[in-house]
Design brief:
alpha/beta; Rossmann fold; N-(1-d-carboxylethyl)-l-norvaline Dehydrogenase, domain 2; 2-enoyl-CoA Hydratase, Chain A, domain 1; 4 domains; 7-stranded mixed beta sheet; 31 helices; 25 strands
Length: about 775
């Protein structure tokens, strides 16, 4: 893969700065230039200020503060020479054609031969951007449309012009995919490209239909949300998130670019009331979350913050309600069950889906030659669980076409072509998709980019139960997959871990622990733990603790390499799984932590033990034995969670030999490659012993807890949990002359958790976490 050794971003606004931050997150040096600041003291103040701002922004554009050191800020007057050796120059200045072209002329005068130049525009066609510029510039030019915020939104739309070299698109696509971790979709130079062309139409339909049917904002969001496989913000909540003040500009820009016969123009009449509401909100300062509020706002009531919703008819606010549509519950049976339900929610769902999906189907092949790219764009750009053509397949292509006709909506030619055939089908060679020609074509994946679902297609598991399964990844590598709700670990999960530790008996030589879910594992199933504790099933709890410890030790000392491949949350027991692997290949957006104190217990499946061993492993520890023990105590006691895989290194959850993969769809392949590399001359790690200070360390740690409690920074039960944690971290009844084994430390873990789980305050924490998803301070 051809990579870019140096990148330059022009424009340090919200998007430009964040694009530069993502390049730096990937370890690539990046120059960030903006116009000369009005303040003469520092002509590069705008770009420098952008870097400083991003270091304080939440959610953070930088994955680690050190990434900011790779950004060189400057200005467009004094520092254009820094572009001479840049391999890719990304322009992200104001959406003004004249200004952009002036920047391109200046860039072309200093850039290196063959360097790639792109624009982050979402509103100006590429053919207009390059009009009048040299042919050599046009050959190296493309559009790279990032979605905001660039670190977290996966979609990157790459658009080629009539003169753009194929190699230019290949370079941008490969870099965006492998290095920046993006789901790259190559688009045609059409208005709004793919995602925004569809997304703007869909959001407009959803809001105008809600107004036409007299729905409240909560009712609309209760349907155009999770029941449709859309983020829980819903449609009005999404407007608050993206900024209501952007809506008029976006709609006006889109309408100016669209063909005269585009269906979006047919919404003009329905939009009149919506436009009036939005204009009034902007005038009053209700621009969404960045303003005083939007369709929702948080208000103070009796000393508490209360969520309020805007009445669309009057413009006043009232306490937000949680609508209880039967159709929303019916949606658990699929989209067909949702739109066929006779209540108001079902009718609304059909009116939104029918128009949106028909619109998308009519845009093939105008906006894309294949339905796969369209579906990927909506999944990655708008976080839809399924793309529009996948939704049509869920409804049934023939059923949907018939229902459109019955509703008086024109049936798109592409759906007529499909007839009674699905748009996607399983084939011997894998998945195939229907093309505009009427034939099926294989859904090809980039080498090294696949999910576990792709591997599982057409296979049976090696072993399986209700919470976990073992799969064959080929080449002698097996995969342990957790698949319970939120991948919470229970007795069935632990049983499959024990089975995975014996896969060499079935001829396998390595193991990868991975899954396709949004979260690797949120830890132990505290609901089962709470039930067992309320029933005083202490022997069962003790057995579960010991079985987990034994299973994770079996992984650690298996006669083959074990590689963890996490993404999303890896908390509590999920973190403990990773701590017992030989190596980890983590997605860059992995959030790892031992958070058990939040529910009133301590890590007891070997997590405390492993963090102690890691933090005390250095043979030349400055300051004696206490600093690494303090670090362990603080990390667990404060329930620290790494907000990226890069930060996980700082906390000791990832080691120097562990890898980080930027693209989610490449984690499994990278983890498998790491496992196969470890197979060569593999030997299980030696069983360690450790000397800990005992009482002297315990007293010191407990004094720290006492101080926090007296100052009001630790609650009464925090103190109890902290004392129990101090007992483990210090080594219990030992002294520095005695060597402790892993079993000694795990026995301390077990004793501590069995004591804590009998406390009523711990049970209150567990119950509160289950009910609210938030820790209780008691």
């Amino acid at each position: 893969m051809a990579s870019f050794g140096k990148v330059a971003v022009l424009g340090s606004g919200v998007m430009g700065g964040a694009i530069a931050a993502q390049v730096a997150n990937a370890g690539i040096p990046v120059v960030l230039l903006d116009i000369v600041a009005e303040e003469p003291a520092d002509r590069s103040a705008l770009a420098k200020g952008a870097v400083a701002r991003m270091l304080k922004t939440k959610p953070a554009p930088f994955m680690h503060a050190k990434a900011a050191e790779l950004v060189t800020p400057g200005n467009l007057d004094d520092d254009l020479g820094l572009l001479a050796d840049a391999d890719w120059i990304c322009e992200a200045v104001i959406e003004n054609l004249a200004i952009k072209q002036e920047v391109y002329r200046r860039v072309d005068a200093v850039r290196g031969k063959g360097s790639v130049v792109s624009s982050n525009t979402s509103t100006i066609p590429l053919q207009r951007l390059t009009k009048g510029l040299p042919a050599a510039f046009a050959r190296d030019f493309a559009i790279t449309h990032f979605f905001n915020p660039p670190r977290y939104m996966r979609l990157l739309e790459v658009v080629a012009g009539a003169k753009t070299k194929i190699s230019t698109i290949k370079k941008l696509s490969a870099f965006g995919d492998v290095v920046l971790g993006k789901d790259v979709v190559v688009c045609k130079d059409t208005p709004g490209f793919i995602a925004n062309r569809i997304g703007i139409y869909w959001s407009t339909v959803a809001m105008t239909e809600a107004l036409a049917m007299g729905l409240t904002v909560e009712e609309a969001d209760a349907i155009v949300g999770r029941p449709m496989g859309i983020p829980k913000t819903g449609i009005f909540g999404l407007m608050d998130l993206t900024g209501i003040d952007l809506a008029p500009h976006v709609m006006t820009s889109m309408e100016a670019l669209l063909p005269a016969d585009d269906a979006f123009r047919e919404l003009d009449g329905a939009r009149a009331e919506l436009d009036r509401i939005i204009a009034r909100m902007i005038e009053d300062g209700y621009t969404g979350r960045k303003g005083k509020g939007g369709f929702y706002r948080l208000a103070q009531s009796d000393g508490a913050r209360v969520k309020q919703a805007r009445d669309l008819a009057t413009g006043t606010y009232r306490p937000a309600e949680a609508p209880a549509f039967d159709s929303a519950r019916a949606a658990r049976g699929g989209l067909r069950a949702l739109v066929e339900h006779p209540d108001k929610g079902g009718h609304y769902a059909w009116r939104v889906l029918s128009q949106t999906l028909a619109y998308v189907a009519a845009l093939i092949p105008e906006i894309g030659d294949d339905i796969v790219s369209v579906d990927r764009a909506m999944r990655s750009g708008y976080a839809w669980k399924k793309g529009p053509f996948e939704q049509i397949d869920e409804l049934g292509c023939q059923w949907f076409a018939g229902k459109l006709a019955d509703s008086g909506i024109a049936v798109p030619e592409f759906l007529r072509l499909a007839g009674d055939r699905p748009l996607y089908r399983e084939a011997k060679g894998g998945l195939e998709a229907l093309t505009p020609s009427g034939a099926y074509a294989a859904v090809a994946a980039e080498p090294g980019a696949y999910r576990l679902a792709d591997v599982k297609r057409g296979k049976q598991p090696i072993a399986s139960n209700g919470s976990a399964s073992l799969w064959d990844l080929d080449d002698g590598v097996a995969c342990l997959e957790f698949h319970s709700k939120m991948n919470a670990l229970d007795r069935a999960s632990i049983a499959m871990v024990r089975e995975a530790a014996k896969i060499d008996q079935h001829g396998y030589k390595a193991l990868v622990i991975a899954n396709d879910a949004g979260n690797f594992s949120v830890g132990a199933n505290i609901g089962l733990g709470l039930f067992a504790a309320n029933a005083a099933m202490w022997p069962l709890i003790e057995q579960t603790v010991k079985q987990g410890q034994e299973a994770f030790l079996a992984l650690k000392y298996a006669p083959f390499p074990v590689v963890g491949a996490p993404s999303g949350l890896a908390l509590g027991g999920g973190c403990e799984v990773l701590l017992h692997c030989d190596a980890v290949q983590a997605h860059s957006e992995t959030y790892i932590g031992l958070v058990e104190v939040g529910v009133g217990i301590v890590p007891s499946w070997g997590g405390t033990k492993e963090l102690i061993l890691r933090n005390t492993a250095s043979p030349n520890r400055p300051g004696g034995p206490m600093p690494p023990l303090m670090r362990t105590f603080e990390t667990i006691g404060l329930a620290k969670v790494a907000t990226s895989a890069a930060e996980a290194r700082d906390l000791g959850f990832l080691g120097p030999g562990d890898g980080i993969t930027m693209n989610r769809t490449r984690v499994l392949a990278d983890a498998k490659a790491k496992a196969l590399k470890l197979v060569r001359r593999y030997r299980p790690p030696p069983r360690p012993t450790i000397s800990l200070p005992g009482a002297t360390a315990r007293v010191a740690l407990q004094m720290g807890v006492d101080s926090l409690h007296l100052s009001g920074k630790a609650t009464a039960h925090d103190k109890v949990v902290g004392y129990a944690l101090a007992e483990i971290v210090s080594g219990g009844e030992t002294d520095i002359t005695r060597e402790l084994t892993e079993q000694d430390l795990m026995a301390l873990e077990c004793t501590a958790v069995l004591s804590l789980i009998k406390a009523s305050a711990t049970l209150d924490r567990m119950e509160h976490m289950l009910e609210t998803g938030k820790p209780l301070r008691n």
